[in-house]
């Protein structure tokens, strides 16, 4: 019952934040209604350049883990929904991501290009940098290679060092405060499933919750850092519960 109450409170919290800040948007469907969809136009756009940087951060530690891959897939949905041809856009974004996750030699160049494009927009700088930090922390720890690439991107953005370190430290503190589920019963309750449910049913419930609570690069526009931290924390809790159940089912 306690977990149900917590989920209800969190749901209300996220709804309140969305309603409070939704009028402050950096990107919208209206802004892209006349956008000509092609690989060249997308990869040179701010969001296309951002996807390339997401790929660099996701692969910085040598692999894109399952949770990162799932969150990146949802990010494709969030971004492509802004454009006139969502499925075509999504396919191209995937292509951009897959190409850029395999190389690191152009990271600084891309970061400088995006940094110049958003130089006069501190809100976009903050949004992009916050999401990249969140992505690095989503698996529970940040490797040295991830930390190095984040710092290089922040420098290319000419992002205020004090603000960068403050954001990084906030996420680090948040991650360390997340406690694993005390027992398997708590894990099942968090996912809203029963012990005798099949793994297919459990996986479906898990994916639904991840999609509901994932850090949304579009809806986070104009919101404070607490939104991304809460979303990241909830995503990690859901993932921990799912991993515990998978181990229990073996």
TrEMBL record:
SUPFAM superfamilies: Chaperone J-domain. Gene3D superfamilies: DnaJ domain, TerB-like. Residues 186-250 form the J domain. It comes from the Bacteria. SMART domains: DnaJ. It holds the Pfam family TerB. This is Molecular chaperone DjlA. The lineage of its organism: Bacteria, Pseudomonadati, Campylobacterota, Epsilonproteobacteria, Campylobacterales.
